[in-house]
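User: Let's play a game. I give you a shape written as C-alpha coordinates, and you guess the letters that built it. Ready? Here's round one.
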Protein backbone atom coordinates (compact mmCIF):
# COMPACT_ATOMS: atom_id res chain seq x y z
CA UNK A 1 0.00 0.00 0.00
CA UNK A 2 1.35 3.40 -0.95
CA UNK A 3 2.13 5.67 1.99
CA UNK A 4 0.34 8.99 1.72
CA UNK A 5 1.71 12.21 3.09
CA UNK A 6 -1.04 13.96 5.05
CA UNK A 7 -0.49 17.42 6.47
CA UNK A 8 -2.21 18.34 9.73
CA UNK A 9 -2.74 22.10 9.92
CA UNK A 10 -2.63 22.55 12.87
CA UNK A 11 -1.76 19.86 15.45
CA UNK A 12 -3.78 21.06 18.44
CA UNK A 13 -5.78 18.81 20.76
CA UNK A 14 -7.79 17.23 17.94
CA UNK A 15 -5.28 17.65 15.12
CA UNK A 16 -2.32 15.97 16.80
CA UNK A 17 -4.48 12.98 17.79
CA UNK A 18 -5.74 12.62 14.21
CA UNK A 19 -2.17 12.82 12.94
CA UNK A 20 -1.03 10.19 15.42
CA UNK A 21 -3.84 7.85 14.36
CA UNK A 22 -2.92 8.28 10.69
CA UNK A 23 0.76 7.66 11.41
CA UNK A 24 -0.07 4.53 13.41
CA UNK A 25 -2.05 3.27 10.42
CA UNK A 26 0.78 3.69 7.95
CA UNK A 27 0.50 7.23 6.63
CA UNK A 28 3.19 9.90 6.89
CA UNK A 29 1.66 12.66 9.02
CA UNK A 30 3.39 16.02 8.72
CA UNK A 31 2.86 19.45 10.23
CA UNK A 32 4.18 23.01 9.91
CA UNK A 33 5.39 24.37 13.23
CA UNK A 34 7.04 27.63 12.16
CA UNK A 35 5.51 30.35 14.32
CA UNK A 36 3.58 27.90 16.49
CA UNK A 37 3.59 28.00 20.28
CA UNK A 38 5.22 25.64 22.73
CA UNK A 39 1.95 23.83 23.51
CA UNK A 40 1.41 22.98 19.83
CA UNK A 41 5.01 21.85 19.46
CA UNK A 42 4.65 19.58 22.48
CA UNK A 43 1.49 17.96 21.09
CA UNK A 44 3.13 17.43 17.69
CA UNK A 45 6.12 15.79 19.36
CA UNK A 46 3.89 13.53 21.44
CA UNK A 47 2.15 12.37 18.26
CA UNK A 48 5.51 11.98 16.47
CA UNK A 49 4.40 14.17 13.60
CA UNK A 50 7.09 15.16 11.12
CA UNK A 51 7.65 18.91 11.18
CA UNK A 52 8.41 20.37 7.74
CA UNK A 53 8.63 23.96 8.95
CA UNK A 54 6.34 26.18 6.89
CA UNK A 55 2.87 25.84 5.44
CA UNK A 56 4.44 26.23 2.00
CA UNK A 57 6.65 23.19 2.64
CA UNK A 58 3.64 21.21 3.86
CA UNK A 59 1.76 22.07 0.68
CA UNK A 60 4.75 21.11 -1.47
CA UNK A 61 5.03 17.69 0.16
CA UNK A 62 1.47 16.68 1.02
CA UNK A 63 -0.96 14.50 -0.88
CA UNK A 64 -3.76 15.72 1.39
CA UNK A 65 -4.19 18.59 3.85
CA UNK A 66 -6.49 18.40 6.86
CA UNK A 67 -7.31 21.86 8.20
CA UNK A 68 -8.12 21.48 11.92
CA UNK A 69 -8.00 24.75 13.85
CA UNK A 70 -10.26 27.37 15.49
CA UNK A 71 -13.09 28.29 13.10
CA UNK A 72 -12.25 31.98 12.99
CA UNK A 73 -8.97 31.07 11.25
CA UNK A 74 -10.46 28.69 8.66
CA UNK A 75 -10.72 31.14 5.76
CA UNK A 76 -7.35 32.77 6.42
CA UNK A 77 -5.75 29.33 6.55
CA UNK A 78 -7.31 28.40 3.22
CA UNK A 79 -6.04 31.62 1.64
CA UNK A 80 -2.51 30.95 2.93
CA UNK A 81 -2.59 27.40 1.57
CA UNK A 82 -4.03 28.55 -1.77
CA UNK A 83 -1.20 31.04 -2.18
CA UNK A 84 1.31 28.27 -1.48
CA UNK A 85 -0.42 26.04 -4.02
CA UNK A 86 -0.22 28.69 -6.70
CA UNK A 87 3.43 29.38 -5.91
CA UNK A 88 4.51 25.73 -5.92
CA UNK A 89 2.15 24.27 -8.51
CA UNK A 90 1.31 21.44 -6.06
CA UNK A 91 -2.42 20.85 -5.62
CA UNK A 92 -3.07 18.44 -2.73
CA UNK A 93 -6.61 17.59 -1.69
CA UNK A 94 -7.75 20.15 0.89
CA UNK A 95 -10.16 19.03 3.61
CA UNK A 96 -11.68 21.66 5.86
CA UNK A 97 -12.48 19.90 9.15
CA UNK A 98 -13.36 23.03 11.11
CA UNK A 99 -16.53 23.95 12.96
CA UNK A 100 -17.78 26.43 10.38
CA UNK A 101 -21.12 27.33 8.86
CA UNK A 102 -22.12 26.01 5.43
CA UNK A 103 -21.62 29.52 4.00
CA UNK A 104 -18.10 29.70 5.40
CA UNK A 105 -17.37 26.20 4.07
CA UNK A 106 -18.54 27.34 0.63
CA UNK A 107 -16.24 30.38 0.84
CA UNK A 108 -13.28 28.21 1.88
CA UNK A 109 -14.03 25.79 -0.93
CA UNK A 110 -14.13 28.60 -3.47
CA UNK A 111 -10.65 29.76 -2.40
CA UNK A 112 -9.18 26.27 -2.70
CA UNK A 113 -10.90 25.43 -5.96
CA UNK A 114 -9.73 28.75 -7.46
CA UNK A 115 -6.20 27.55 -6.74
CA UNK A 116 -6.95 24.39 -8.76
CA UNK A 117 -7.12 21.89 -5.89
CA UNK A 118 -9.87 19.45 -4.89
CA UNK A 119 -11.91 20.44 -1.83
CA UNK A 120 -13.79 18.32 0.71
CA UNK A 121 -16.09 19.69 3.41
CA UNK A 122 -15.80 17.84 6.73
CA UNK A 123 -17.17 18.12 10.25
CA UNK A 124 -15.74 16.26 13.25
CA UNK A 125 -18.02 14.89 15.96
CA UNK A 126 -16.76 13.12 19.06
CA UNK A 127 -13.61 13.15 21.15
CA UNK A 128 -10.16 13.08 19.60
CA UNK A 129 -8.89 9.63 18.54
CA UNK A 130 -7.57 7.68 21.50
CA UNK A 131 -9.63 9.57 24.10
CA UNK A 132 -12.51 7.15 24.34
CA UNK A 133 -15.62 6.87 22.23
CA UNK A 134 -15.74 7.20 18.48
CA UNK A 135 -14.35 10.03 16.39
CA UNK A 136 -16.48 10.61 13.31
CA UNK A 137 -15.60 12.70 10.28
CA UNK A 138 -18.73 13.55 8.29
CA UNK A 139 -17.70 14.52 4.76
CA UNK A 140 -19.49 16.02 1.79
CA UNK A 141 -18.75 17.31 -1.68
CA UNK A 142 -18.67 16.06 -5.26
CA UNK A 143 -15.68 13.75 -4.61
CA UNK A 144 -15.16 12.79 -0.96
CA UNK A 145 -13.38 9.54 -1.90
CA UNK A 146 -9.92 10.61 -0.64
CA UNK A 147 -11.34 11.13 2.86
CA UNK A 148 -13.55 8.05 2.75
CA UNK A 149 -10.35 6.08 2.12
CA UNK A 150 -9.21 7.05 5.64
CA UNK A 151 -12.16 5.30 7.27
CA UNK A 152 -10.97 2.90 9.97
CA UNK A 153 -7.63 4.64 10.53
CA UNK A 154 -8.42 5.45 14.12
CA UNK A 155 -11.73 7.13 13.27
CA UNK A 156 -14.84 6.75 11.14
CA UNK A 157 -15.43 8.67 7.93
CA UNK A 158 -19.10 8.97 6.95
CA UNK A 159 -20.53 10.31 3.71
CA UNK A 160 -22.92 13.18 4.55
CA UNK A 161 -23.89 14.32 1.06
CA UNK A 162 -22.76 15.41 -2.37
CA UNK A 163 -22.80 19.17 -1.75
CA UNK A 164 -20.22 21.36 -0.08
CA UNK A 165 -21.73 22.62 3.18
CA UNK A 166 -23.74 19.55 4.13
CA UNK A 167 -21.05 18.14 6.43
CA UNK A 168 -20.55 21.54 8.03
CA UNK A 169 -24.30 21.95 8.49
CA UNK A 170 -24.46 18.64 10.34
CA UNK A 171 -21.59 19.68 12.63
CA UNK A 172 -23.24 23.04 13.31
CA UNK A 173 -26.62 21.68 14.35
CA UNK A 174 -24.99 18.95 16.44
CA UNK A 175 -22.77 21.42 18.31
CA UNK A 176 -25.73 23.75 18.56
CA UNK A 177 -27.23 21.18 20.92
CA UNK A 178 -24.14 20.06 22.84
CA UNK A 179 -22.27 23.31 23.44
CA UNK A 180 -25.53 25.23 23.37
CA UNK A 181 -26.77 23.07 26.25
CA UNK A 182 -23.57 23.66 28.25
CA UNK A 183 -23.87 27.43 27.88
CA UNK A 184 -27.58 27.38 28.75
CA UNK A 185 -26.80 25.39 31.89
CA UNK A 186 -24.01 27.82 32.79
CA UNK A 187 -26.28 30.81 32.22
CA UNK A 188 -29.00 29.33 34.43
CA UNK A 189 -26.55 28.53 37.21
CA UNK A 190 -24.83 31.92 37.02
CA UNK A 191 -28.16 33.73 37.14
CA UNK A 192 -29.10 31.76 40.25
CA UNK A 193 -25.68 32.56 41.72
CA UNK A 194 -26.12 36.28 41.07
CA UNK A 195 -29.64 36.29 42.53
CA UNK A 196 -28.62 34.39 45.66
CA UNK A 197 -30.71 31.28 45.06
CA UNK A 198 -28.02 28.87 43.84
CA UNK A 199 -28.15 26.60 46.91
CA UNK A 200 -31.92 26.24 46.71
CA UNK A 201 -31.73 25.62 42.96
CA UNK A 202 -29.09 22.89 43.33
CA UNK A 203 -31.17 21.23 46.05
CA UNK A 204 -34.21 21.23 43.77
CA UNK A 205 -32.14 19.93 40.85
CA UNK A 206 -30.93 17.08 43.09
CA UNK A 207 -34.58 16.09 43.60
CA UNK A 208 -36.07 16.65 40.18
CA UNK A 209 -33.17 17.00 37.68
CA UNK A 210 -30.51 14.60 38.96
CA UNK A 211 -29.29 13.54 35.52
CA UNK A 212 -28.81 17.10 34.22
CA UNK A 213 -27.27 18.14 37.56
CA UNK A 214 -24.72 15.33 37.36
CA UNK A 215 -23.90 16.44 33.83
CA UNK A 216 -23.50 20.05 34.98
CA UNK A 217 -21.15 19.05 37.79
CA UNK A 218 -19.07 17.04 35.33
CA UNK A 219 -18.88 19.71 32.61
CA UNK A 220 -19.55 23.29 33.70
CA UNK A 221 -16.48 23.74 35.99
CA UNK A 222 -14.15 22.89 33.11
CA UNK A 223 -15.57 24.86 30.18
CA UNK A 224 -13.11 27.79 30.36
CA UNK A 225 -10.20 25.74 29.00
CA UNK A 226 -11.92 25.61 25.61
CA UNK A 227 -14.08 28.70 25.83
CA UNK A 228 -11.94 31.11 23.79
CA UNK A 229 -11.93 28.89 20.72
CA UNK A 230 -15.61 28.04 21.12
CA UNK A 231 -16.67 31.69 20.80
CA UNK A 232 -16.07 31.53 17.06
CA UNK A 233 -17.88 28.21 16.80
CA UNK A 234 -20.98 29.70 18.43
CA UNK A 235 -20.84 32.60 16.00
CA UNK A 236 -20.68 30.15 13.09
CA UNK A 237 -23.65 28.24 14.53
CA UNK A 238 -25.61 31.48 14.89
CA UNK A 239 -24.89 32.26 11.23
CA UNK A 240 -26.01 28.75 10.26
CA UNK A 241 -29.31 29.14 12.07
CA UNK A 242 -29.86 32.57 10.53
CA UNK A 243 -29.28 31.18 7.05
CA UNK A 244 -32.08 28.67 7.72
CA UNK A 245 -34.45 31.39 8.90
CA UNK A 246 -34.10 30.38 12.56
CA UNK A 247 -33.23 33.00 15.17
CA UNK A 248 -29.48 33.19 15.81
CA UNK A 249 -30.05 34.85 19.17
CA UNK A 250 -29.61 31.79 21.35
CA UNK A 251 -26.15 30.99 20.01
CA UNK A 252 -25.13 34.64 19.98
CA UNK A 253 -25.84 34.41 23.70
CA UNK A 254 -23.83 31.20 23.90
CA UNK A 255 -20.88 33.02 22.34
CA UNK A 256 -21.19 35.73 24.99
CA UNK A 257 -21.19 33.13 27.75
CA UNK A 258 -17.96 31.65 26.41
CA UNK A 259 -16.46 35.16 26.27
CA UNK A 260 -17.14 35.51 29.99
CA UNK A 261 -15.58 32.14 30.79
CA UNK A 262 -12.56 32.97 28.64
CA UNK A 263 -11.77 35.87 30.98
CA UNK A 264 -11.54 33.70 34.08
CA UNK A 265 -8.23 32.34 35.44
CA UNK A 266 -9.37 28.83 34.57
CA UNK A 267 -9.08 29.72 30.88
CA UNK A 268 -5.29 29.40 31.28
CA UNK A 269 -5.72 25.66 31.75
CA UNK A 270 -5.56 23.11 28.95
CA UNK A 271 -7.36 19.82 28.77
CA UNK A 272 -4.16 18.23 30.04
CA UNK A 273 -3.82 20.57 33.03
CA UNK A 274 -7.42 20.83 34.24
CA UNK A 275 -7.87 20.97 38.01
CA UNK A 276 -10.32 18.08 38.17
CA UNK A 277 -10.91 18.63 41.89
CA UNK A 278 -12.70 21.92 41.21
CA UNK A 279 -16.36 21.79 42.18
CA UNK A 280 -19.32 23.37 40.45
CA UNK A 281 -19.83 25.70 43.41
CA UNK A 282 -16.21 26.87 43.31
CA UNK A 283 -16.38 27.47 39.58
CA UNK A 284 -19.59 29.50 39.80
CA UNK A 285 -18.16 31.69 42.56
CA UNK A 286 -15.28 32.54 40.23
CA UNK A 287 -17.39 32.94 37.10
CA UNK A 288 -19.65 35.41 38.90
CA UNK A 289 -16.76 37.86 39.26
CA UNK A 290 -16.48 38.18 35.48
CA UNK A 291 -20.15 38.78 34.66
CA UNK A 292 -20.37 42.36 33.30
CA UNK A 293 -22.01 44.87 35.60
CA UNK A 294 -25.44 46.13 34.62
CA UNK A 295 -25.32 49.48 32.85
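Assistant: Ready! My guess for every position:
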Amino acid sequence: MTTRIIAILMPGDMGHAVGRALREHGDDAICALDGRGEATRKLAAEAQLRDVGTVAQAVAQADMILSILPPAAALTQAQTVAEAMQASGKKPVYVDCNAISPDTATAVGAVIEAAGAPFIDAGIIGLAPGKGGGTRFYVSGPDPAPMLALDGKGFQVIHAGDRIGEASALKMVYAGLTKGTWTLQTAVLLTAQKLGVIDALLEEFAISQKGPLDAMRARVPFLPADSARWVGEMEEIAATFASAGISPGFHDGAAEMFRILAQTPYAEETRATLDTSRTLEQALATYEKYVPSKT
